[in-house]
Amino acid sequence: MMYLLILLILLCPLNLFAGFGASGVDHPRSVSGVSLPASIGGVADDYPESLARWKFESGALTTDSRSTNTLTNVNTVTADTTNFKEGAASADLEASSSQYFTVTDANLASGFPLKNGDTGKTITISAWIRLESVIGAGAYYMLWSKYGENKASLWFGLNENERILMSLGYNSGASEETIGPHGTTLTSDGTTWYHVTGSYRDSDKAYALRVRSGTDCSVIGTDVTGTTTNNINVEDGSMGIGATLWSSWVYPYDGLIDDMAVFNTLLSADQATLVCKGLYR
């Protein structure tokens, strides 16, 4: 019997094992404690692929784990090592102290969405957020921005009703078009987490605003999708996390932010849920 088994193995065509190599599942990668394969069935884009990812870990608040987009910490944003959604810490931003992060356009990595000279002009911003206070009348909490005085490109934040929205710069950055808001008012009790996503693609002016549950990543409310009237302006305004730059940095965010990522694609609803679950690179 043993001799027959050896003979069968020797005679078996090698291509029967072709599924157990580069075209199959290989090189697992750990993301948020979840092991992800580098490919499944040879498909390279099984999971969303971020260009920048700030995990806001203690001792590494400014580190981009995907690229070289290192943040400048303004007014001493601190790490919260008790409350977080990924890793072992989150960024705790205090609006009363005007705390935020920034990167100049020149220091953004080549190919970063909306960097001056970008021709693709497609971006998705995603993050875990936990609001610590009610937003004042007529005010905003900024999550992410690519902005400057008369250099508006895009900002992603929350309005006075605690609803996510975006604003698109056009007319050479001197004018803005509001995108949204989402129909769900987020709780600002300092304990409730949400995963939020804002996307824009200039080729067809498509946008999307999505909110996912902090407990199971289920869809909250109704995803807001549509198209803008105007095309986006792209120039050399600075990138901000937790504030936006006009003549000075304004509309600081108050609360926790964790695992913020930037993609150069417009994520679908299913992809936004995968990102919420940590199933992305």
Describe this structure as you would to a colleague.
- Mean pLDDT is 88; it is low at 1-44.
- Strands 3, 5, 6, 8, 13, 14, 15 and 19 form an eight-stranded antiparallel beta sheet that branches.
- This protein is mainly beta and 281 residues long.
- The protein contains two helices and 19 strands.
- 42% of the residues are buried.
Summarize the structure.
The protein has 281 residues and is mostly beta strands.
Task: Kindly list the characteristics that best describe this protein.
281 residues; mainly beta; disordered N terminus; 33% strand
Q: If you average the pLDDT, what whole number results?
A: 88
| Helicity, as a percent range | under 10%
Give start-end ranges of low-pLDDT stretches.
1-44
First-residue to last-residue Cα separation? 48 Å
Number of strands: 19
Secondary structural class: mainly beta
Q: Give me the number of helical elements.
A: 2
Q: How much beta, percentage-wise?
A: 25-35%
* Radius of gyration, CA atoms, in whole angstroms: 21 Å
**Element-by-element helix/strand order:** HEEEEEEEEEEEEEEEEEEEH
Task: Characterize the overall form.
Answer: globular
Largest sheet: 8 strands, antiparallel
Write the layout of secondary structure elements.
Layout: H1 2-11, E1 29-31, E2 34-36, E3 52-54, E4 72-74, E5 78-80, E6 90-93, E7 100-103, E8 122-131, E9 141-147, E10 154-158, E11 164-170, E12 175-179, E13 194-201, E14 206-213, E15 224-227, E16 238-241, E17 244-245, E18 249-250, E19 255-263, H2 269-276
Antiparallel strand pairs: 1-2, 3-19, 4-7, 5-6, 6-19, 7-16, 8-13, 8-19, 9-10, 9-16, 10-11, 11-12, 13-14, 14-15, 17-18
